[in-house]
Structure to design on (422 residues):
């Protein structure tokens, strides 16, 4: 069968030394998130304070950019086939280097003109961003150590969280002292480091009978309903936090240094528990469905408090607790997802996941933008979107159904082998 041959090719492709490959990707994640988180929070602040954009316009910037994450998704399979998996992961950092190099030159107080000028950059960023995300899923599906999946995911999550801790603090101080443009210059250096880690290391290409048309046909056939529900819950929450949380901090806190400290320190608390959570998941003492359901309940309570109580110290404490809670949910979720993607048809499944995620991000950014445009009370908007995002997390427990489906298939295959041996 074609799919069996494809999966066999993937198996041969990824018989590389685990520690070396995971270390390279971990370093990429560290440098990439240092660069991205350094500039993203500073950009929202710069738009609001220096360019006098309204909150809905800042949200619309993310919305317009997201359109160009969704449109090129059918094209990313052939790109990975052409340049290889690790180089595809690195392509996102190269695209963001170009994007952030030119962005300060194109930003102006004229919102409409700025968005028009940014359209080509949005397309470049979206095309290679989607390519990188899909390649990352393919890489992880074949490199996670079966006996320590949770710890492996936790290691990578810690690399991301280190960038999430340091970057907002650095970005806040640099933006306050020297301005937004100098912050982007430092971010460019991190993007180059991230790309360099993977571009200078060996990569392998693979043959795959793939086309955008095949992806469109596979989309409905290969997508379990439970995966669609779970991804909606995961991505809707992430999307709200990506857009609404920086805007919330800009309104509540007075300067970029304070904003960076709150964002960075709260991420540090979350990083401290990531590895512990991974080890607990490997021990199998608690099922993913229970963990995800309880995490959703905690998130609703925490985000309700965060939306109502706007005192800076309280915000920092609540955000720390929220990020710890996020970690308790992320590792078990990813473990179930990568079991599904690794079970077969890896490239199609990774492609489908990218399309689902980017589509839900687009929907989420549109909701936040419309609420900010039509509702004059920003407190009502923030309370609404924070609580809605937390409620959507309830759907993430559906990922356990995807994991159970994989387990059933594995058990059925094992029983067939046993019967043949008998």
């Amino acid at each position: 069968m074609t799919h069996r041959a494809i999966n066999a090719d993937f198996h041969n492709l990824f018989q590389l030394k685990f520690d070396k490959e995971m270390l390279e990707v971990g370093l990429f994640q560290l440098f990439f998130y240092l660069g991205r988180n350094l500039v993203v929070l500073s950009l929202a602040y710069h738009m609001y304070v220096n360019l006098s954009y309204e909150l809905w316009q800042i949200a619309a910037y993310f919305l317009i950019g997201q359109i160009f994450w969704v449109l090129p998704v059918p094209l990313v399979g052939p790109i990975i086939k052409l340049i290889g998996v690790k180089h595809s992961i690195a392509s996102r950092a190269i695209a963001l280097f170009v994007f952030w190099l030119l962005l300060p030159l194109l930003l102006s107080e004229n919102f409409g003109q700025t968005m028009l000028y940014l359209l080509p950059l949005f397309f470049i960023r979206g095309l290679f961003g989607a390519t990188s995300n899909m390649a990352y899923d393919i890489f992880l599906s074949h490199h996670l150590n079966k006996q320590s999946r949770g710890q492996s995911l936790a290691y990578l999550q810690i690399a991301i969280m280190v960038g999430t801790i340091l970057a907002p603090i650095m970005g806040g101080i640099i933006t306050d002292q020297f301005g937004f443009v100098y912050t982007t210059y430092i971010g460019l250096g991190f993007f180059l480091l991230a790309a360099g880690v993977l571009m200078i290391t060996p990569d392998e290409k693979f043959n795959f009978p793939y086309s955008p048309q095949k992806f469109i046909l596979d989309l409905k056939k290969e997508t379990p309903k439970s995966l669609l529900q779970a991804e909606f819950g995961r991505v809707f929450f992430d999307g709200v936090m990506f857009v609404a949380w920086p805007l919330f901090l800009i309104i509540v806190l007075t300067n970029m240094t304070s904003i960076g400290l709150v964002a960075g320190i709260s991420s540090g608390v979350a990083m401290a528990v990531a590895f512990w959570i991974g080890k607990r998941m490997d021990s199998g003492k608690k099922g993913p469905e229970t963990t995800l359901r309880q995490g959703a309940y905690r998130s609703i309570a925490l985000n309700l408090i965060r939306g109502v109580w706007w005192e800076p110290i309280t915000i920092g404490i609540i955000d720390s607790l929220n990020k710890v809670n996020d970690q308790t949910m992320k590792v078990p979720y990813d473990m179930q997802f990568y079991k599904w993607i690794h079970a077969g048809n890896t490239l199609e499944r990774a492609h489908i996941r990218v399309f689902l995620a980017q589509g839900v991000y687009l929907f989420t950014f549109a909701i936040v933008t419309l609420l900010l445009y039509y509702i004059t009370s920003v407190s009502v908007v923030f309370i609404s979107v924070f609580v809605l995002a937390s409620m959507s997390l309830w759907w993430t427990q559906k990922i356990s159904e995807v994991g159970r489906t994989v387990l059933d298939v594995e058990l059925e295959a094992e029983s067939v082998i046993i019967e043949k041996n008998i």
